[in-house]
Amino acid sequence: MHLQLSRSLRETTALFVVALSTLGFITGCSSSDGGGTSAPAGFGVQAAPSADSFSGPTLQVTLTPVGLTMPNPVVHYTTDLSVPDASSPVYTTPFVVTETTIVKAIAINTDDSTSEVMMQGYTLIDNPYRQEWYDSGHGDITGEAFRHWDDDGDVSTSCARCHGEGGLEDYAADGVVDNPGGLAMGHDCNACHAPVPVTLYDWLSNYPALGNVEFPSTATANLYGPSNMCIACHQGRESGLSIDEEIAGDPAGPYKFINIHYFAASATYFGAETSGGYQYSGLAYAGRNAFPSHAADQQSCVGCHMRGDLKDHHLEPLVSDCNGCHAGSTFESLSGTPQSSYQAIQSNKPQLLTAIQAYANDTLGFPVVYDAHGYPYYFNDTNGNGIADSDEIGYGNRYVEFDAALLKAAYNYQVASKDPAGYIHNGVYIRQLLHDSIADLGATPVVAAPGRSGFNLAAGTKSEQWHTSGHGDSTAEAFRHWDGAGEVSTSCARCHTSSGFVDYIEDGTTDSAVLPMESVECSACHNSENLFADDSTRFDDLFAHGALEPVEFPSGATGTMGDSSNLCISCHQGRSSGLAIDAASVNSA
Question: What is the pTM of this model?
Answer without folding.
Answer: 0.91
